[in-house]
Amino acid sequence: MSAAPPRSHGPGADRLVAPVFGALAATGAVLLALVFGFVLREAAPVLADGGVARFVADDGWSPLEGRFGLLPMVWATLAASAGALAIAAPLGIGAAIHERFCAGPRLAAAQRMTLALLAGVPSVVVGLWGLEVLVPLIARWQPPGASLLAAMLVLALMILPTVALTASSALGAVPESWLAGGAALGLGRRAVVLGIALPGARGGIVGGLVLAAARALGETMAVLMVAGNVVRTPTGLFDPVRVLTANIALEMPYAAGSHRAALFASGLALLLLVLALTWAGARLAGGSAHAH
């Protein structure tokens, strides 16, 4: 008995599936708009009393005195996330290159499994490790140990799997014919990787970096446990700092009135940072796609 021919998926199937995915995309957009609207509504009282300039002009963060300066925590948030990405990006992309072009099948599978397990470790566990191991090590070098550097290192460990796994998938999507063509021209492995594979995977790699940076911006517990939680503009790697997410987690349980509204304004600032990051990442990925 001959096997039945495979079913063809023609335009009719596409017409059935397209509305489903369109509805899912619209639902996601609506949920995002609802979250943004809720945060904006809750922050409105303090925004109306002084406007956005108040969060820039106020000298420090002291809710009991009516001062809601967010700039020190904004700078700390950006510094911790940028430092973590600067550490995780080369390590993650290097791990992806090793998996795709250097490791054998068994080693590559073990590497992917290890990264997947690392990605699933709860952030509070990573924070505990940082508090008990990393902070004392830094304190031996430069007290107090709980610092911007500790936050960067913990965040880098947390976003490394995202960078490595997305970069690996992007490199795996580069057409084999491109790589074979480079080899046929006499290019060595290094030239093929640097000249063909990485440029061909640039859009996917940039997308993974954006995802990793967004996670670093939004991380709370691990950073709260190792950063020191002092509201100050960081001037060095060893300064204790407080990021926006930690500020919300620490103070929301007892906040009321203008204090509570200011914490929602902190959340609004985080949302705007993530939106700006996503827009910039989309522009970079789109530019790299057009370049090919």
Question: What is the H/E string?
Answer: HHEEHHHHHHHHHH
Q: Give the mean pLDDT.
A: 88
Rg is: 23 Å
Oligomer: single chain
Reported for the largest beta sheet, the result is: 2 strands, antiparallel
Strand order of the largest sheet: 1-2
How would you summarize this macromolecular structure in one to three sentences?
With 292 residues, this protein is an all-alpha fold. 75% of the residues lie in helices and 1% in strands.
Question: What tags apply to this protein structure?
Answer:
292 residues, mainly alpha, MetI-like fold, two-stranded antiparallel ribbon, 12 helices, 2 strands, globular, disordered N terminus
Describe this structure in words.
It contains 12 helices and 2 strands, in the order ααββαααααααααα. By secondary structure, it is mostly helical. It has a single domain (53-291), classed as MetI-like (MetI-like fold), CATH 1.10.3720.10. A two-stranded antiparallel sheet has the order 1-2. Strand 1 (61-62) and strand 2 (67-68) form a beta hairpin. Helix 3 packs antiparallel against helix 4 (105-119) and helix 3 (71-102) runs antiparallel to helix 9 (202-218). The protein is globular.
